[in-house]
């Protein structure tokens, strides 16, 4: 025995109806949102961090530049500095030690005081005292102007200010400079980044946690499916809807949310965007209550509805003309099958009779039976020859055999004749009407030994006439007004389709179907008459 494959226990409901596309686990919604959020933080965080770092670095640089200028101005006004530059030997000897103590108090990297020739009087490195100060502008202070600059000095790259030192008479004696090395600025910048990094990581963690929560919520809302699976299932459902012959509408709360191309063609809304209000004038069938008929754009349609859950109703629209055509084809097929069965039964009986006669040696009787049967069929062929339409003639020949099976005498009026050509649809309608009316007449007349059915198919100056008479009991008075309503029949339940189809086809052709009781040849007859108007009645 073939082994059964195991079925996963957690299969999405949609996967039991549609083969969904395969999606690798790496590409599921959760990892996608997680990686997307992480990538967004990194892609956006790094440039933002660069901009923030640049701003913080610039701010720190400006802060130290302002501090350098402020402290340099303070040093330039100190009395010991002015006295040392004015020529006081004692103050000059103690000035370097004083500035180094002052440097420690300010937290600066160096405090330099020079004369007018930019030769140092003070420096953190005693070996540099007496040497010329390096880097930058050494002319502005001689004009009484202060400058702040970033230069490469003996201690390294630094931010410093040069402020002129003036005496009481306003003469420039030298300059005072307080500097901060850039490594110190870099340390401050890194400290700021270290302080801000935990907050950045916290925000990243919260964003990732939120992404995972959203992913779980989205997965739940999407019925446990991936986006590609939903798209694949939707494409397959769309393919099914678009290839149906019937129009399909899905309505909820008076609005149409789904409409396939066939429904758009029937309703005349090829480009309308959904949702749409339920079409005015179109009845909304009660779900499960059976189909209803309506007219849309001059075309009769058949509507049926079914509940779809969550307040949705699925409505199917079928072209009533097509439904009737299919019903006609089914009726024709059933009629031909019945005629073939009757012919088979009739010929089987004849063959059994011939076999018995030959077995008994009654060859003369067997030949007489064969000649009689041949003559009868020849008479039938001659009778239907004037109809000039093969399908209608074949139908009448089959009805002759059916009548013989039921013990009814079927006669085709000698006046029966049709033109060689008929308008489109008339021949089909005539076949449908003749088949149903003759079959009903044979059933109604069968039983008595003298049962008889007469048929006339001919044209007159007003058009085409089909008349079927039978010697049956006639139409019950209670059914006379509703005989052509589908499901109404004197033969019991499950009948009442044939006459309804004939009446519908007669209405489509502009024909008239009537019935009455007449007396002729000393007998009472039930007569059904179909009058079909023709553009030009032909003989």
What is the number of strand segments? 15
Rough outline = rod-shaped
Radius of gyration: 55 Å
Unreliable stretches covering 5 or more consecutive residues? 1-9
User: Which strand order do you get reading across the main beta sheet?
Assistant: 7-6-5-10-9-8
| Averaged pLDDT | 77
Q: Percent of residues in helical segments?
A: 40-55%
Number of helices: 11
N to C succession of SSEs: HHHEEEEHHEEHEEEEHHHEHEEHEE
Structural class: alpha+beta
**Percent strand:** 15-25%
Distance between the amino and carboxyl termini: 73 Å
Largest sheet descriptor? 6 strands, antiparallel
Transmembrane segments: 33-52, 197-215
EC number: 2.7.13.3
Organism: Deinococcus knuensis
Catalytic activity: ATP + protein L-histidine = ADP + protein N-phospho-L-histidine
Describe the structure.
With 539 residues, this protein is of the alpha+beta class. It is built from eleven helices and 15 strands. The protein has helices at 29-76, 79-86, 89-106, 182-221, 227-243, 261-267, 320-360, 363-385, 390-406, 426-445, 498-509; strands spanning 110-115, 147-153, 156-166, 172-181, 247-252, 255-259, 276-277, 292-296, 299-309, 312-319, 409-412, 452-460, 463-470, 512-520, 523-533. It has a six-stranded antiparallel sheet. The protein is rod-shaped. Mean pLDDT is 77; it is low at 1-9.
Summarize this entry quickly.
With 539 residues, the chain is of the alpha+beta class.
């Amino acid at each position: 025995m073939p082994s059964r494959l195991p079925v996963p226990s957690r299969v999405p409901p949609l996967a039991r109806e549609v083969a969904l596309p395969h999606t690798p686990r790496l590409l599921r919604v959760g990892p996608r949102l997680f990686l997307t959020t992480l990538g967004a933080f990194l892609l956006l965080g790094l440039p933002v961090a660069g901009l923030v770092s640049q701003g913080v670095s610039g701010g720190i640089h400006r802060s130290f530049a302002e501090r350098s200028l402020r402290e340099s101005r303070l040093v330039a006004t100190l009395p010991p500095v002015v006295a040392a530059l004015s020529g006081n030997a004692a103050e000059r000897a103690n000035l370097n030690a004083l500035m180094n103590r002052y440097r420690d108090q300010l937290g600066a990297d160096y405090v330099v005081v020079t004369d007018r020739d930019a030769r140092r009087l003070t420096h953190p490195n005693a070996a540099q005292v007496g040497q010329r100060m390096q880097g930058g502008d050494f002319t502005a202070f001689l004009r009484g102007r202060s400058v702040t600059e970033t230069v490469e000095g003996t201690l390294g790259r630094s931010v410093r200010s040069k402020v002129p030192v003036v005496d009481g008479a306003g003469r420039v004696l030298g300059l005072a400079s307080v500097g901060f090395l850039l490594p110190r600025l870099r340390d401050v910048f890194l400290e700021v980044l270290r302080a801000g990094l935990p907050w950045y990581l916290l925000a990243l963690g919260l964003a990732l946690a939120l992404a995972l929560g959203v992913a779980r919520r989205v997965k739940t809302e999407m019925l446990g499916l991936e986006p590609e699976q939903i798209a694949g299932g939707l494409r397959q459902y769309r393919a099914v809807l678009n290839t149906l012959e019937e129009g399909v509408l899905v309505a909820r709360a008076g609005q149409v949310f789904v409409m396939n191309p066939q429904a758009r063609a029937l309703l005349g809304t090829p480009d309308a965007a959904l949702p749409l209000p339920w079409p005015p004038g179109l009845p909304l069938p009660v779900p499960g209550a059976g189909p209803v008929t309506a007219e849309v754009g001059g075309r009769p349609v058949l509507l049926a509805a079914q509940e779809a859950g969550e307040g949705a109703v699925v409505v199917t629209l079928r072209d009533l003309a097509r439904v009737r055509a299919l019903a006609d084809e089914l009726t024709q097929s059933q009629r031909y099958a019945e005629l073939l069965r009757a012919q088979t039964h009739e010929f089987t009986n004849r063959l059994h009779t011939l076999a018995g006669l030959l077995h008994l040696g009654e060859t003369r009787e067997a030949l007489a039976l064969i000649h009689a049967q041949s003559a009868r069929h020849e008479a039938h062929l001659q009778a239907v020859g004037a109809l000039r339409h093969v399908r209608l003639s074949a139908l009448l020949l089959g009805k002759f055999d059916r009548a013989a099976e039921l013990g009814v005498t079927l006669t085709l009026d000698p006046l029966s004749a049709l033109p060689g050509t008929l308008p489109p649809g008339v021949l089909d309608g005539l076949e449908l009407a003749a088949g149903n009316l003759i079959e009903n007449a044979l059933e109604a007349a069968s039983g008595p030994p003298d049962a008889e059915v007469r048929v006339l198919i001919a044209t007159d100056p007003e058009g085409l006439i089909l008349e079927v008479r039978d010697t049956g009991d006639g139409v019950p008075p209670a059914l006379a007004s509703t005989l052509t309503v589908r499901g109404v029949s004197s033969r019991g339940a499950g009948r009442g389709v044939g006459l309804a189809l004939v009446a519908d086809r007669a209405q489509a052709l502009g024909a008239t179907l009537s019935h009455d009781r007449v007396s002729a040849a000393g007998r009472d007859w039930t007569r059904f008459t179909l009058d079909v108007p023709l553009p030009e009645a032909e003989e």
